[in-house]
Design a protein that fits this description.
heterodimer, A: about 280 residues, alpha+beta, two-stranded antiparallel ribbon, 9 strands, elongated, B: about 170 residues, mainly alpha, globular
Chain lengths: ~280, ~170
């Protein structure tokens, strides 16, 4: 048996295969052939070299481009027959999404999803929307599927800088009595980037959502519950150009008190800085 | 459980980007464009697939197609030059990184580059790789002979670069 044939039969070397006469002959050839032995050693070395690239992640800018293009493509489907078929490849229903988020990331993104759904209901009632509310909800879900920015920090200053850098929004994290910040991450609502800041305290965790919106006027905190039959209490309010919400597994009145105490003090102020 | 296309693409993004870096010889901008092309191409053709291994290969096939489309020449029509077989010491790879591999890939024409990526680096079977590249098995075999050229470039040029940078 020649070198080329032996290499072809044994390719790829790591693959488990039934050892018939052909494979046995090929292995015998490689064992007795220094060139073939070197060939497979080089093959391994090349593979190991490529494996070093595993530490290279696709940059966030690329993920955003892909997400944007996919969203655009879903909004403006081509007229030809190449449109993806309906069914499993289409976005899931709102509550199916919540279930998936819960399974995949734990309860907090699911809580966020529930919040977004509630906010959306409010928006539908307020202004009406061309697309269904679920489109906006799914948008955030899809964005999560292709990656997102986040920061793990207990430092309010660092979180403030993160928000300013990522959202172009100068906003102070809430000073919630008995709670401290643990992380902040970017979310997406109606194509606009917002943020979720997670706080931890003795009573559990709460999340504060900040979503810049140009036409938003100030309104005081109110409890929003029951619109979608979800037991999670949500307190929503707004400052000029910023929608805000607080959600957590606390009693509704406790949540409202936290939001009210925080929203009337410095943190509610926000301003936009010029785009990056 | 069916998964959305965005979930599937998100899972593959890093691996596709790494492959795109090889195919674009380490040019990050071109690699990003290539991944975007790949995902959009895949989106147009997407069919539900539950097996992760098949999903991975499905995306990889589209990466290669997107790459060949961008290179504006088909593998079928590209001339395949004879490559001298060289004996190289595998230990010489020590100290090299993936960047060296990406840079060395620039010595390869698009067809051999795509073939080597599929077969050598992503462990595709010869027949499946030939099908994706649109060539027969014999032509694929000739494309794979460029491996020695890649090795040679990798070991000579990378060491020269490192020496020039004072690393070795």
């Amino acid at each position: 048996m020649g070198c080329d044939e032996a290499r072809r039969i044994l390719w790829p070397l790591e693959e488990l295969r039934i050892v018939g006469p052909e494979v046995a002959d090929a292995r015998a050839h490689v064992r007795s052939c220094p060139e073939c032995e070197a060939y497979f050693a080089q093959d391994r070395a090349l593979l190991d070299l490529y494996a070093k690239a595993r530490s290279v992640s696709a940059p966030m800018s690329l993920r955003l481009r892909v997400f944007d293009d996919l969203a655009q493509s879903r909004r403006s489907p081509p007229s030809g027959p190449t449109r993806p078929p309906p069914g499993p490849t289409n976005p899931p229903s709102r509550w199916e999404t919540v279930r998936r988020l819960t399974r995949r990331y734990g309860p907090w993104p699911a809580a966020m999803a529930a919040l977004l759904a509630l906010v959306l209901i409010g928006k539908v009632h307020d202004r009406g929307m061309d697309a269904g509310a679920s489109d906006v909800f799914v948008e955030d879900y899809l964005r999560r599927a292709v990656g997102q920015e986040f920061i793990v920090s207990r430092d309010p200053g660092e979180v403030r800088r993160f928000l300013e850098r990522e959202l172009g929004l100068r906003v102070e994290p809430l000073a919630l009595d008995g709670f401290s910040i643990v992380r902040a991450e970017i979310c997406l609502l109606e194509g606009k980037r917002g943020a979720m800041i997670v706080y931890e305290g003795a009573d559990g965790r709460v999340s504060h959502y900040v979503v810049p919106r140009e036409d938003t006027k100030a309104r005081p905190p109110t409890i929003t519950t029951g619109s979608l039959g979800d037991p999670m209490p949500v307190v929503t309010w707004s400052t000029v150009r910023v929608e805000q919400a607080l959600v957590g597994e606390l009693a509704p009145q406790r949540l409202l008190a936290l939001a009210t105490a925080s929203s009337v003090s410095p943190p509610a102020r926000a301003s936009r800085k010029p785009p990056r | 459980m069916p998964r959305t296309f965005e979930e599937l693409a998100g899972d593959q993004m890093d691996a596709l980007y790494q492959g795109a870096l090889f195919l674009s010889c380490g040019d990050a901008g071109t690699a990003e464009d290539l991944v975007v092309d790949t995902v959009m191409l895949a989106f147009q053709e997407h069919a539900a697939e539950s097996d992760p291994e098949r999903t991975r290969r499905w995306f990889e096939a589209r990466l290669v197609r997107a790459f060949l489309r961008r290179s504006e020449r088909s593998v079928q029509s590209a001339p395949v030059a004879a490559v001298e077989r060289t004996k190289l010491d595998p230990d010489a790879f020590e100290g090299l990184g993936s960047d060296d591999l990406f840079e060395a890939a620039s010595i390869l024409p698009p067809g051999p580059r795509a073939a080597l990526w599929l077969v050598l680096l992503r462990r595709w079977g010869h027949h499946d790789a030939a099908r994706v590249l649109g060539v027969d098995d014999a032509k694929l075999q000739r494309l794979l002979e460029y491996r020695d050229l890649l090795m040679k470039r990798l070991l000579t040029d990378s060491h020269l670069r490192k020496r020039a940078r004072g690393i070795s």
